[in-house]
Amino acid sequence: MKTIGVLTSGGDAPGMNAAIRAVVRTACENGIKVYGINRGYAGLIEDDLRELNIRSVSDIIHRGGTMLYTARCKEFREESGMQKAIATCKKYGIEGLVVIGGDGSFRGARDLSLRGIPCIGIPGTIDNDIASSDYTIGYDTCLNTIMQMVDRVRDTVESHSRCVVVEVMGNRCGDLTLNSGIAVGATAIVIPEIRDDIEKHVIDRIKRTQKTDKKHFIIMVAEGIGGVEELARKIEKNCGVETRAVILGHVQRGGSPTVRDRVAASQMGYKAVQLLMEGVGNRVVVQKDDHIVDYDIYEALNMERKVNNELYKIAHEISI
């Protein structure tokens, strides 16, 4: 393989730049030309590429976001869009692609692989919602950001004897909420995988905790649940404690990646290029049991993700 491309797709995640860096430098070290594709599949369709070399990726490992930018591309879901992308690959002699993103990005990589462009997926998403991988790039940085933000909110909550309901990113996956909830000592954690009765789960827990003379409370809720403003009103009405809703929003996506994200991204980027050099495509590089391995994309997309029930139990046993 003489020429490859690399792109980032879907939501940005800290550590994507570290993965791009690893891909580019591994390829260059092995005599392979690399094109960076701007704005994901949209850039591939629109011929928005640039050649990268070892100096192109200097001083990016510590930066959040993605130097290649990212976008969600509806046109790529159509056959006509995919054919435009393939035409761009042929124009530049691109024989393989590294795709950094989530499940939606992997589906695009699968479709291109089926049409003759070998693709390797790397899981880059803050939600940690890729069933085939124990860990996704950006997750650790996001967790630490949430923890730091809630720790700051806690100062005001404690000073005023209030309750705060914090909405955390994660539409279908509660890993961010569960783990950050444990880290900040939340009284209750609400995630989409476990649909407990809100009144019993949250309000009853606050009332129980009030009996132990606790005056302030932190409730963590995954965005997939929604209704944090309404929950805050219910808590104030039923528990007699002044309650505020806080939506952390996109601040969770940004920031300099942690050591774990930089190292995992570097390992995955290196592995992706090695696979392409071996002539292998239609694979996704993942972390499993602390090892970097790869699966067929079909197999990876069909894996079932399971919530850590033991961790959920621990969270609520120690939160009173």
Order of helices and strands: EHEHEHEHEHEHEHEHEHEEHH
* Strand residues, percent: 15-25%
Instruction: Please give the largest β-sheet.
Output: 7 strands, mixed
- The count of β-strands is 11
Q: What strand order characterises the main sheet?
A: 3-2-1-4-5-10-11
Shape: elongated
Total helix count?
11
Unreliable spans are none
SSE-based structural type: alpha/beta
Distance between the termini: 58 Å
Residues in helix, % = 40-55%
From the alpha carbons, calculate the radius of gyration and give it in angstroms: 22 Å
The residue-averaged pLDDT reads 96
Summarize the structure.
By secondary structure, the chain is an alpha/beta fold.
Characteristic key phrases:
320 residues; alpha/beta; seven-stranded mixed beta sheet; four-stranded parallel beta sheet; 11 strands; 18% strand
What this model shows, in words?
The chain is an alpha/beta fold. 42% of the residues lie in helices and 18% in strands. The chain is built from eleven helices and eleven strands. The protein has helices spanning 16-29, 40-45, 79-92, 103-114, 139-159, 175-184, 198-210, 228-239, 259-277, 297-302, 309-317; strands at residues 3-8, 33-37, 49-52, 96-101, 119-123, 163-168, 188-190, 217-222, 243-247, 283-288, 291-296. It has a seven-stranded mixed β-sheet, with helices on both faces. Strand 10 and strand 11 (291-296) form a beta hairpin. Helix 1 packs parallel to helix 9 (259-277). It is elongated and about 70 Å long. The mean pLDDT is 96.
